[in-house]
């Protein structure tokens, strides 16, 4: 395999495209408009330049990646010749299913279709295609170029060959992988959402400040990032969608904290809006 398509050029899509490019793949990054793709190109080019200047990537890798990421608004052009397509759109099941239905019509019969979801069902998504055995979830973590893990989630019909294939891709991206049998929230999202939601409840109850809650978990439990910092990085709207899905599928313990709901209604979405649990210049 030499060509990968990434659908969705948000934070995760940009990170996946960057990681695939520096691993030597030809990458097509797709989104709904040229304007969005030009913003993505600017961000990825900046990350490539910074990585090269700091010595994280060699010059030949940098040059290859610059020339081998193609920004394409037409989904058919972006996906028709790829051996692997990774979807990285919003965490909305209807949107993901719509993308997969289109990809199923566009892509070659042997193309693997992967969803970068943190909670959604690859079984449900795969059932809407003619190739459920070739549908799998590859859950990358933010920031993709730094985080070492990819959760590989097997749907009901996902074949052993598909799982082996995406494990090999993860390895070529210099990632470790874990295989998970599908269940809502998989492994990491269930734990992350519980910890983050409890931190939000403690903040709402006045137990401690956001900074002290985060400091306590970083220094007392050896977490690399505090749960409120992490929620701001992920995006509070994204976290709320994840919590609502887990609440719907797993029950009361995943009821979203009222403070999270209030912040999203106020437009306080974290780093991307400039303000969440913290303020960002």
Instruction: Briefly note the structural class of the backbone.
Output: alpha/beta
Q: What is the helical fraction, as a range of percent?
A: 40-55%
Mean of all residue-level pLDDT scores = 95
- The arrangement of helices and strands along the chain is EHEHHEHEHEHEEHEHHHHH
**How much strand?**
5-15%
Instruction: Give the overall shape.
Output: globular
How far apart, in Å, are the first and last alpha carbons?
Answer: 42 Å
Low-confidence stretches: none
* Topology, number of strands: 8
Question: Rg to the nearest angstrom?
Answer: 19 Å
User: What does the oligomeric state look like here?
Assistant: single chain
Helical segment tally?
12
Largest sheet: 8 strands, mixed
Enzyme class: oxidoreductase
Pfam families: 3HCDH, 3HCDH_N
Domain 3-hydroxyacyl-CoA dehydrogenase NAD binding: 3-182
Family: Belongs to the 3-hydroxyacyl-CoA dehydrogenase family.
Description of the structure:
The chain contains 12 helices and 8 strands. With 281 residues, it is an alpha/beta fold. It has an 8-stranded mixed sheet, with helices on both faces. InterPro entries: 3-OHacyl-CoA_DH, 3-OHacyl-CoA_DH_NAD-bd, 3HC_DH_C, 6-PGluconate_DH-like_C_sf, 6PGD_dom2, NAD(P)-bd_dom_sf. It is an enzyme of class 1 (oxidoreductase). Pfam families: 3HCDH (PF00725), 3HCDH_N (PF02737).
């Amino acid at each position: 395999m030499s060509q990968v398509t990434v659908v969705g050029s948000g934070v995760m899509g940009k990170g996946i495209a960057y990681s695939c490019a520096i691993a030597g793949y030809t990458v097509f990054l797709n989104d709904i408009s040229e304007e969005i793709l030009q913003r993505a190109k600017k961000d990825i080019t900046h990350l490539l330049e910074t990585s090269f200047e700091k010595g994280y990537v060699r010059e030949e890798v940098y040059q290859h990646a610059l020339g081998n990421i193609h920004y394409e608004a037409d989904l058919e052009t972006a996906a028709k010749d790829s051996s692997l397509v990774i979807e990285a759109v919003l965490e909305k099941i209807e949107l993901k299913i719509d993308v997969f239905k289109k990809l199923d019509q566009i892509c070659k019969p042997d193309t693997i279709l992967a969803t970068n979801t943190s909670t959604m069902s690859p079984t449900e998504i795969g059932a809407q295609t003619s190739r459920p055995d070739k549908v799998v979830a590859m859950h990358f973590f933010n920031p993709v170029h730094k985080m070492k893990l990819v959760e590989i989630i097997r749907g009901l019909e996902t074949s052993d060959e598909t799982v082996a294939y995406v494990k090999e891709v993860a390895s070529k991206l210099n990632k470790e992988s874990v295989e998970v049998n599908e269940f809502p929230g998989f492994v990491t999202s269930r734990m992350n959402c519980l910890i983050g939601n409890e931190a939000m409840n403690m903040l709402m109850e006045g137990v401690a400040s956001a900074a002290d809650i985060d400091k306590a978990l970083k220094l007392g439990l050896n977490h690399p990032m505090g749960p409120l910092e992490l929620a701001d990085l992920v995006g509070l709207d994204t976290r709320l969608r994840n919590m609502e899905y887990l609440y719907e599928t797993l029950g009361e313990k995943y009821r979203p904290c009222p403070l999270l709901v209030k912040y999203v209604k106020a437009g306080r979405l974290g780093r991307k809006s400039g303000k969440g649990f913290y303020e960002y210049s």
